[in-house]
C-alpha cells in the first residue's frame, strides 16, 4: 500500500480515536496535537505514519477487521504492530459482530462475512472439508463449531483458517459406530436415552451425514481456542442434554441426568445453562467432580418460547424469551414452506434477592443483544456506534427449522424491542438458508486476506 493510502487511513484512524470512549485521554491528547498529525502524515515519511508499537497496537485494537487488514499492509512498522497484536494471546480487541454465512455465489469452500459496521460483505476462503457440506452449530470467540458429512465436529476460525478436530462423535454415549466387512465406518447406531429413561423403540441406523441432524442442537466455547485452554459444551439430543470436552480430550464427557437445555453461558470454567422452562443451572467444569447447582428454579410452564442466557455489560445475568408466529400454522407441510418471524422478545434480569427471582426489564437502554446459534451477547451500543440501542440482532436457531426444514427462509433481522418490529439486515438476501447463518465476533489471530464481494 502506498504512503498516500496509508496517510488517508491514518487520518481515518485519528478520527476514530478521538470519537472512541474506549481510548485513553493521553492518546486522544496526542492525536489532537496538530504538529504531531502533520509530521505523521507528511509526504516525506514514505514508510507511513510512525508511532511507538505499543501505541499502534492500542489503536489497531479499536479497528474493525477490514481496517485492521488494511492497516497491516501500510508499511513494515504497521505490519509489525499488526502481527504482534494478532499473536498476543490476551490482546483486547473491540470487534463489532458480523453475520457469517454461506452462499452458492461464492462457492463451496468460502464463507461470506457481512460487516454491520461497514454495511459491506467480504469473502473468506476456509479449509476443507467444504463449508457448504457442513452444518454450523455454534459460534464463540471468533470460532465456529461445525459438523461435517461424517457428523464429526471441528472448531474453525474463519478469519485465520485455523481448524481443530474435536473428539469423535462415537464417544457420545448415544452413538455407536457400525463398520463394514473391510473395517470401514459406514453407519451409526443411534439410541434414544437419558439418565432416567430409555426409548422403547429400537436403536436407529443412520447414514454418516444423517446423524448430525438427529443429534446436535448447539455448541459453546469457554474461551478462545487459540490459547489452547478451552472447554466445548454440546447441547444434544435426545432431550437436549449436555456433554463437554476440554482442549486435548479424546472423548466427550456426559453431564446426566438433566435435560431440556436451551442456551449456555460461560464465566471462566463456570457453565450457566438455562432450560426450556427457564431454570438456570451452574456447573463448575474446572472442578475434579462436576455437580449441578440450581441458580434459578422453573419459572415458566410453556416450552414454545426459546430461552437465552446472557451477561450484560454491567455484569448482571439476563434471561431472554423469544416468541415467533409459528403457532399460527398447523400442518407440517405448511410449516416447512411458510416463512417464520420473531414477534416478541422479553428481557428479564436474574435477581435472586427479589421475591420473584426474575425482574422484567422494559428496555435495554443503550444495550444491544445478539442471539441465535451463537454465544448470546449483550453489548453497549456506545462502544459500538454502528449498532442500534435497545435492539436484538437475530439469527435462526429453531431446531426443527435448521435441522429439518433446511430450505425454509431464515428468521434473521434487527428487532426493535420498543416497537416489537423486525426489519431486514440487508436486502437482497446474501446468504443460503443452510447451513444457517450465525453471528461471529471476528478473531484476527493469523489473519487471512479478505476479498470484497457485492
TrEMBL record:
Entry's transmembrane regions: none
For this protein, the record's SUPFAM superfamilies field holds:
F-box domain
Annotated F-box domain residues: 51-93
Q: Which PANTHER family match?
A: F-BOX DOMAIN CONTAINING PROTEIN, EXPRESSED (PTHR44586), OS11G0579600 PROTEIN (PTHR44586:SF6)
Protein's recorded name: F-box domain-containing protein
Amino acid at each position: 500500500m502506498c504512503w498516500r493510502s496509508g496517510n488517508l487511513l491514518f487520518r481515518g484512524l485519528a478520527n476514530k480515536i478521538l470519537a472512541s470512549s474506549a481510548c485513553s485521554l493521553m492518546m486522544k491528547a496526542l492525536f489532537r496535537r496538530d504538529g504531531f498529525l502533520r509530521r505523521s502524515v507528511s509526504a516525506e515519511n514514505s514508510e507511513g505514519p510512525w508511532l511507538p508499537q505499543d501505541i499502534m497496537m492500542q489503536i489497531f485494537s479499536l479497528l474493525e477487521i477490514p481496517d485492521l487488514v488494511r492497516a497491516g499492509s501500510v508499511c513494515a512498522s504497521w505490519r509489525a504492530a499488526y502481527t504482534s497484536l494478532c499473536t498476543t494471546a490476551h490482546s483486547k480487541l473491540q470487534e463489532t459482530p458480523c453475520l457469517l454465512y454461506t452462499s452458492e455465489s461464492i462457492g463451496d469452500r468460502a464463507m461470506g462475512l457481512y460487516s454491520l459496521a461497514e454495511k459491506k460483505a467480504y469473502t473468506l476462503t476456509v479449509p476443507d472439508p467444504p463449508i457448504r457440506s457442513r452444518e454450523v452449530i455454534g459460534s464463540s470467540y471468533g470460532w465456529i463449531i461445525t459438523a461435517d458429512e461424517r457428523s464429526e465436529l471441528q472448531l474453525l476460525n474463519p478469519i485465520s483458517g485455523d481448524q481443530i478436530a474435536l473428539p469423535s462423535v462415537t464417544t457420545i454415549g448415544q452413538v455407536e459406530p457400525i463398520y463394514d466387512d473391510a473395517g470401514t465406518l459406514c453407519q451409526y447406531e443411534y439410541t434414544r436415552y437419558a439418565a432416567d429413561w430409555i426409548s422403547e423403540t429400537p436403536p436407529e441406523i443412520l447414514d454418516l451425514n444423517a446423524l448430525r441432524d438427529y443429534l446436535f442442537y448447539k455448541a459453546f466455547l469457554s474461551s478462545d481456542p487459540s490459547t489452547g485452554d478451552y472447554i466445548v459444551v454440546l447441547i444434544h439430543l435426545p432431550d437436549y442434554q449436555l456433554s463437554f470436552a476440554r482442549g486435548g480430550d479424546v472423548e466427550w464427557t456426559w453431564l446426566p441426568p438433566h435435560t431440556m437445555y436451551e442456551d449456555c453461558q460461560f464465566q471462566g470454567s463456570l457453565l450457566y445453562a438455562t432450560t426450556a422452562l427457564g431454570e438456570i443451572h451452574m456447573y463448575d467444569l474446572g472442578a475434579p467432580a462436576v455437580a449441578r447447582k440450581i441458580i434459578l428454579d422453573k419459572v415458566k410452564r410453556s416450552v414454545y418460547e426459546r430461552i437465552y442466557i446472557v451477561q450484560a455489560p454491567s455484569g448482571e445475568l439476563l434471561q431472554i424469551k423469544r416468541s415467533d408466529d409459528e403457532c399460527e400454522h398447523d400442518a407440517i407441510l405448511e410449516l416447512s414452506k411458510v416463512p417464520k418471524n420473531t414477534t416478541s422478545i422479553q428481557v428479564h434480569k436474574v435477581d435472586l434477592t427479589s421475591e420473584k427471582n426474575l425482574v422484567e426489564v422494559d428496555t435495554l437502554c443503550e444495550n444491544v443483544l445478539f442471539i441465535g446459534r451463537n454465544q448470546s451477547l449483550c453489548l453497549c451500543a456506545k462502544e459500538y456506534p454502528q449498532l442500534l440501542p435497545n435492539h436484538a440482532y437475530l439469527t435462526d436457531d429453531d431446531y426443527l427449522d435448521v435441522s429439518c426444514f433446511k430450505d425454509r427462509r431464515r428468521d434473521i433481522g434487527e428487532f426493535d424491542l420498543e416497537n416489537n418490529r423486525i426489519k431486514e439486515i440487508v436486502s437482497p438476501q446474501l446468504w443460503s438458508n443452510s447451513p444457517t447463518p450465525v453471528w461471529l465476533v471476528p478473531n484476527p489471530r493469523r489473519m487471512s486476506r479478505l476479498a470484497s464481494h457485492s
